[in-house]
């Protein structure tokens, strides 16, 4: 690109050096009367008070009525992008900015200006002068009249519910907050209770298991000396109506009961002398013993040779314990309840 002449200007901070022709229709923003480089310095609170007392511009509905175009004509564009509504004109490349005139209210800016050089007042400490240089204390001339203060951002025809809202600290908000807190707490408590109940219920036996856990047995068909077998909780239960010889044989060994592998007397094993009720599973490895067999005539496990007497006590073999006694009770003379 050819070098720029001494009187030519170019776009500032643009990736391409576009030559610009000076024109009265497009003066630099700092020289245009609408955008004077003048600012008012006073506390920020007073600036905001001015907004409420300043005379506002009439209500407009078109951007063209709100801001004057900085270049071109809306009816004759003179090319692409010549008619644009912006607050400031295209900024020319700065050369040597002059020192601001504080007497005229111009803002101190530029690399050639320091704070204490511009704003230091001999009548006050430098730190106080520097504090007044805070940007919040400066507003451009006409800011109170031109600062946008929209009353609403909701288009016409759309309901605006902002007036129905209560401030965060308002007392009328508390019942609603209490209601939400109580509702949320109740819902959370209900969820926790449901989860806890489901967890506990998973540990309970099924209804069919409970139903099978209690069995009533009619004892009238059982003959004397017979080993009657019923099923209780998927296990065989031996119900034997003992003969007088069986009872006498069991009671005869009571004196040596303390020396047995699992000490127990015949009376401790049988609630009624004539009835022996035990679980028919060997306590060694779970085989089913055979009745009326073994060295003691009670039960014999053919798997590994455990011998039980007529009270179901282990007398010989590898079984560690006596035959297990199920929980039972006699409902009447001829009925027993297992479980």
Beta-strand percent range: 15-25%
Number of strands: 14
Structural class given helices, strands, pairing?
alpha+beta
The string of secondary-structure elements, in order, is: EEEHHHHEHHHEEEHHEEEEEEE
Largest sheet report: 4 strands, antiparallel
How much helical structure, as a percent, in the residues?
Answer: 10-25%
Radius of gyration: 53 Å
Compute the number of helices: 9
- N- and C-termini, Cα separation: 107 Å
**Spatial arrangement of strands, main beta sheet:** 9-10-11-12
Low-confidence stretches: 1-21, 27-35, 80-96
Name the shape in a single word. Answer: rod-shaped
GO molecular function, one term: metal ion binding
Protein name: Rieske domain-containing protein
Membrane topology: Single-pass membrane protein
Pfam families: Rieske
Describe the structure.
It is a single chain. The chain has 339 residues and is of the alpha+beta class. It has helices at 44-53, 63-66, 115-119, 126-131, 143-146, 174-201, 207-212, 244-252, 266-269; strands at 9-10, 19-20, 39-41, 138-140, 215-218, 227-232, 235-241, 275-279, 290-291, 299-301, 306-308, 314-316, 328-332, 335-338. It folds into 3 domains: 9-146, no CATH class; 166-204; 212-338, Rieske [2Fe-2S] iron-sulphur domain (Rieske Iron-sulfur Protein). It has 9 helices and 14 strands. The strands form 5 sheets. Strands 9-10-11-12 form a 4-stranded antiparallel beta sheet, with no helix packed on it.
């Amino acid at each position: 690109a050819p070098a720029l002449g001494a009187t030519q200007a170019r776009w500032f901070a643009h990736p391409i050096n576009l030559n610009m022709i000076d024109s009265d229709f497009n003066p630099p923003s700092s020289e245009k009367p609408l955008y004077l480089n003048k600012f008012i310095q006073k506390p920020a609170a007073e600036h905001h008070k001015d907004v409420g007392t300043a005379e506002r511009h009439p209500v407009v509905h078109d951007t063209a009525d709100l801001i004057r175009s900085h270049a071109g004509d809306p009816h004759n564009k003179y090319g692409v992008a010549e008619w644009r509504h912006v607050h400031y004109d295209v900024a020319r490349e700065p050369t040597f900015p002059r020192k601001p005139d504080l007497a005229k209210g111009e803002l101190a800016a530029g690399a050639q200006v320091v704070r204490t050089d511009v704003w230091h007042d001999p009548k006050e400490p430098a730190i106080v002068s520097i504090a007044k240089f805070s940007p919040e204390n400066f507003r451009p001339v006409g800011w109170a009249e031109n600062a946008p203060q929209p009353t609403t951002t909701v288009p016409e025809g759309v309901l605006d519910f902002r007036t129905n809202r209560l401030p965060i600290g308002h007392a009328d908000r508390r019942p609603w907050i209490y209601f939400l807190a109580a509702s949320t707490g109740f819902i959370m408590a209900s969820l926790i209770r449901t989860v806890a109940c489901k967890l506990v219920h998973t540990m309970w036996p099924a209804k069919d298991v409970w139903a099978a856990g209690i069995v009533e047995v009619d004892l009238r068909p059982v003959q004397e000396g017979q080993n009657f077998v019923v099923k209780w909780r998927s296990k065989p239960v031996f119900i034997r109506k003992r003969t007088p010889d069986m009872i006498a044989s069991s009671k005869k060994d009571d004196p040596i009961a303390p020396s047995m592998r699992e000490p127990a007397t015949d009376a401790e094993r049988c609630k009624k002398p004539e009835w022996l009720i035990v679980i028919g599973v060997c306590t060694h490895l779970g085989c089913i013993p055979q009745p009326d067999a073994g060295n003691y005539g009670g039960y014999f496990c053919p798997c590994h040779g455990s011998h039980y007497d007529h009270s179901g006590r282990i007398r010989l073999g590898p079984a560690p314990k006596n035959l297990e006694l199920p929980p039972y009770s006699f409902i009447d003379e001829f009925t027993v309840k297992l479980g």
